[in-house]
TrEMBL record:
The keyword Isomerase does not apply. It comes from the Eukaryota. The gene is OGFOD2. It comes from Pelodiscus sinensis (Chinese softshell turtle). Keywords: Dioxygenase, Iron, Metal-binding, Oxidoreductase, Vitamin C. This is 2-oxoglutarate and iron dependent oxygenase domain containing 2.
Length: 352
């Protein structure tokens, strides 16, 4: 079966924290048994939510989002089952990762990273450090242009089909959940294990790069009549890969600010352009967002990579010791630590 060998879990905060409110484009916490916190009320007020009527609408939206999240895992598994039985892929070959999909430079970089005396300095000669060294954001060729074209065609074929579709995440309304399409087993998992992990090990050893053991992967899509942009956020990931797949579009640049654990009063953002077929690697905790596209369609593959060794100690979403709850498949990448599993202490990157 496709079940991971190890049981992955989620943190209970998924039902209470980081609830994204589309209307005001901000994240709130909400615990049913309690009133909204003073802090939430203030933030809402600052965003123009003031009257009783405004608050009623917010409360309703939040309660709906909590309900959606409670049913999410179950509904996602139901969609996946239907899709695997009924969906007819246009390009079945893109479901099984092959070296020919990957850019030759990417294969070279991975080869270097898996060689005996690979080190960070050597790797930095292969990839672009695009933001100055402090942000640790890197650009590298990932796929061939031809693969990007076929992959988007496949996703469009799915989009135009009658199949049930989920939303990529809380903040993106358009795109495809790659798990539901059956793309984890023979594509995303080997891509993470064989290719991305060796690179991340050298770039982010202090942030779980050496122990990435699960992921959540999806494609986001922006266009003038769908989502235009993406609000500032951090990912539920230790390390993220974001690959531009196409098609033709203008603007829609990404911007990156501080680490979530170390916000400065006036964050300095760096803006980064997309280059089709190339990817960006960044730490999930680095606050970022996307500017509006002004024409065309932008499709990006996002792989949120997770390290159970890191997140078992501190959930990146609620910033507390995770309250572990059962989950489907990779869940949110937590595990019940067993003794002798990992060293007792693992450096967390915000401590450094
Ligand atoms: O729009 C993008 O390319 C970035 C998406 C993103 O940051 C995310 O889904 O976490
Ligand atoms: Fe993100």
């Amino acid at each position: 079966s496709a079940r991971p060998a190890r049981a992955f879990l989620a943190c209970a905060c998924f039902h209470t924290d980081n609830l994204f409110l589309q209307r005001y484009r901000l994240h709130l916490s909400y615990r049913e048994e309690k009133e909204m916190t003073k802090e939430s009320l203030k933030v809402l007020g600052d965003h123009g939510c003031r009257t009783d009527e405004d608050f009623k609408v917010v409360l309703k939206e939040i309660q709906e989002e909590v309900q959606r999240r409670k049913q999410l895992a179950h509904q996602s598994m139901a969609r996946k089952a239907i899709i695997s039985q009924c969906y007819k892929p246009k390009h079945p070959e893109v479901y099984v990762l092959q070296d020919s999909f990957l850019a030759p430079e990417f294969l070279e970089t991975v080869k270097y990273c898996t060689s005996q005396d690979a080190d960070l300095q050597g790797l930095l000669r292969c990839i672009d450090s695009i933001s100055g060294s402090d942000k640790r954001i890197y650009r590298l060729p990932v796929f061939s242009k031809e693969f990007c074209r076929l992959f988007i065609e496949e996703l469009e074929n799915f989009e135009q089909s009658e199949m049930p579709k989920g939303r990529p995440n809380t903040m993106n309304n358009y795109g495809v959940l790659l798990n539901e399409l059956g793309l984890y087993e023979a594509f995303i998992t080997p891509l993470r294990e064989k290719y991305l992990q060796p690179i991340a090990s050298l770039l982010y050893p202090d942030c779980g790069g050496e122990s990435l053991d699960s992921h959540k992967a999806f494609v986001v899509k922006y266009s003038l009549h769908e989502d235009l942009d993406l609000s500032s956020h951090y990912d539920n990931a230790e390390v993220t890969l974001n690959v531009s797949l196409g098609k033709e579009f203008t603007e829609g640049n990404l911007y990156f600010g501080d680490l979530r654990q170390a916000p400065t009063p006036v964050p300095k953002y760096v803006e980064i352009e997309h280059v089709v077929s190339q990817g960006l690697l960044h730490r999930g905790g680095q606050i970022h967002g996307a500017l509006p596209v002004t024409s065309g369609e932008r499709w990006n593959l996002i792989i949120w990579m997770r390290s159970s060794a890191i997140r078992n100690q501190l959930c990146p979403m609620c910033n507390k010791k995770p309250e572990l709850v059962e989950a489907e498949e990779f869940g949110d990448g937590f595990t019940r630590s067993t003794e002798g599993d990992m060293p007792q202490t693992v450096d967390l990157c915000y401590l450094i």
